Amino acid sequence: MKGFASTLATIWRLAAPYFRSEDAFAGRLLLAAIVAIELSIVAINVMVNQWNARFYNALQDRNWDAFITELMIFSGLAAAFIVLAVYQLYLNQWLHIRWRRWMTAQLLGDWLDGPNHYRMQLLGDAADNPDQRIAEDVNWFIEKGLYLGVGLLGATVTLLSFIAILWSLSDAAPLTMFGSQWNIPGYLVWAALLYAIAGTVLTHLIGRALIHLNFMQQRYEADFRFDLVRTRENSEQIALLEGEPAERSRLSRRFASLVNNWHLLMTRQKWLTFFTAGYGQISMVFPYVVVSPAYFSGAIQLGGLMQTASAFNSVQSALSFFVSASTYRQFAEWRSVVQRLAGFELAVAAGRTAAVTPPVVEVTPVDGTVELHDLTVRLPNGTPLVAANGIVVKTGERVLVSGPSGSGKSTLFRAIAGIWPFGKGRITVPKGARLMMLPQRPYFPIGTLAAAIAYPAEPGTFDKARLAEVLTAVGLPAMVPRLDEEAHWNRMLSLGEQQRLGLARALLQAPNYLFLDEASASLDEPSEAALYRLLRQRMPQATIVSIGHRATLAAFHDRRLALERDGEYFQVRESALKPAE
User: Fold this and answer.
1) Helix (H, G, I), strand (E, B) or coil at 179
2) What percentage of the chain has pLDDT greater than the value 70?
3) Residue 555 DSSP code
4) Which one-letter DSSP state was computed for residue 389?
5) Which residues contact 55 (CB under 8 A, 6 or more apart)?
6) pTM score over 0.90
7) What is the per-residue pLDDT for 365?
8) pLDDT in tens, 228-264
9) 293-327 pLDDT per residue, tens
């Protein structure tokens, strides 16, 4: 019961916000309409149950006029049922897409709340495959939640409606055994109740393992799909390294995990289907077995028998809502989806919590400087990596950061950018200053070249003349005619071309502080020198901090910050450089 209550609380936490959102009026109206239609369908089923008695009595009495009348009544009930069923599906799908649109926007907002998505990965990414959780799990949560919720409501109302009918029919058709009548009030209700409880308990005992198996199946499917995408994205490097056998082996191992879990699912579903199929077959005749003694004793007519059997079947079906193999499988899948979305929420919250831990980025006046005080940057496991104290980078300076590989230069940049949450100390940045970080391998969204260069600004922010001018300035005039071409630019362009485009992006954005993390390392030295002279010419007031290993970079910077080994970590120390020419 504790786990059940926890699951209900989780479902409420995931579902309730939509019905309190800006789209709440439409959502509540659609849900109310769906509920009203479900109640109307139950009412029609009650009327059909009463119709059964009159129709079969007409058959038994060979009453032609009553027979025709009941057929006309049934036609009206059937027509109403068809219209209600069609519009219930239509409104259900309408609510589904509105709810999904809102919930997807919320999860995307939480995931892409600043660098929260990056911190989630640093913390171990307990929510594996966030793409699947946002794209598929949200869809399944709503689709299966509506199906199970409306179905449960219908089962509950059906139960309440038919229990009263079945109780009264128990008096009309008393229990007859071995020629004797037993006056047990509502015995048909108790028989249906016991039958359904036994079926539900056994179904859960057999099928509860499906919840965890479905959770793992979704994870294995997503892992396999993700590795396929990574293979496609890195096809050039795989081909150059002749890594196809290794990739095939790795993908085969991923798929083997998927297949093994699938076999476990098959086995569990086989036993569940064995039971539920048998339960369903027995359910077809069980009501007649219970009521037939009263019929053969002459206590009720054929119509009464059919009405009683129909009412009995409605009650035990309502009580056995989860006994159906398909329903229980959907319930198990839905539980696993709820767990995955709850895990995603926890991972988002952990990322936000990490954002408020030291180092703390303090905001200082506009004319301030970037300063590092008593700063210790650590690895996620807590090991100290870089220490810095009293480091000041003034406005307009050119600073070169150097140090051995693995000394934490890039991690120091991430801490200054405010996305690295591990460490302690203080980092200050000028208020209102625009900081831009250019990594060694820039990111370009799939789309037009113009949109890729302008990123993260919206497409159309810069006119084509400006884009053509910066492309020519960074040495890519041949790409000007391709500004409207859509492509996967990270795959199509060489790393050197990507780095030139990254610097073109910096010229367009014109940040106050530009941090270059080996952002020109793939270019030859003359080209690198030309681009640094271009940055000095086009961005004379900007502060530029570069990570680099080439000695030739010294000529384009005013001083050096060197990361030197100091015991178990690296210490940032200052040294002068020859002024730029």
Assistant:
1) coil
2) 88
3) G
4) -
5) 67, 70, 74, 303, 306
6) no
7) 66
8) 887 877 776 677 667 788 888 888 888 999 899 999 9
9) 767 766 667 777 777 777 777 777 776 665 564 56
Contacts of residue 459, defined as CB under 8 A and 6 or more positions apart, other chains included, come to 447, 448, 450, 451
Q: What is the pLDDT of residues 508-517, one digit of tens each?
A: 999 999 999 9
If asked whether residues 388 and 460 sit together in one domain, one would say: yes
Buried b (16+ CB within 10 A) or exposed e, 440-468: bbbebeebbbbbbbbbeeeeeebeeeebb
456 prior amide bond cis, ω within 30: yes
In 368-454, alpha helices (H): 409-417, 449-454
Cβ atoms of 511 and 435 closer than 8 Å: yes
Q: Which two tokens stand for residue 339?
A: 């767990």
The span from the CA of 333 to the CA of 54, in Å, is 42
Among residues 433, 431, 434, 451, the alpha carbon closest in space to that of 443 is found at 451
d(CA 249, CA 135): 28
Q: Do 330 and 433 share a domain, yes or no?
A: no
Can you read off the two tokens belonging to residue 280?
């369903």
Residue 511's φ and ψ, nearest 5 degrees, are -75, 160
For the chain, how many structural domains are there in total?
Answer: 2
322, 355, 388: which is the final residue of a domain?
355
Give the CATH number of the domain where residue 391 resides.
Answer: 3.40.50.300
Q: Of 362, 363, 403, nearest to 385 (Cα)?
A: 403
Per the structure, the complete domain to which residue 366 belongs is given by: 360-576
* H or E element in which residue 176 lies: strand 175-177
Do the bridges between strand 559-566 and strand 398-402 make them parallel or antiparallel, or are there none, so unpaired?
parallel
Residue 243 in 3-state DSSP?
coil
Residue with tokens 């086009």: 538
Integer CA distances (angstroms), 493 to 298, 443, 471, 532, in order = 88, 12, 14, 21
Residue 161 has what pLDDT?
Answer: 79
**Can you tell me the distance from the alpha carbon of 336 to that of 514, in angstroms, rounded to the nearest whole number?**
45
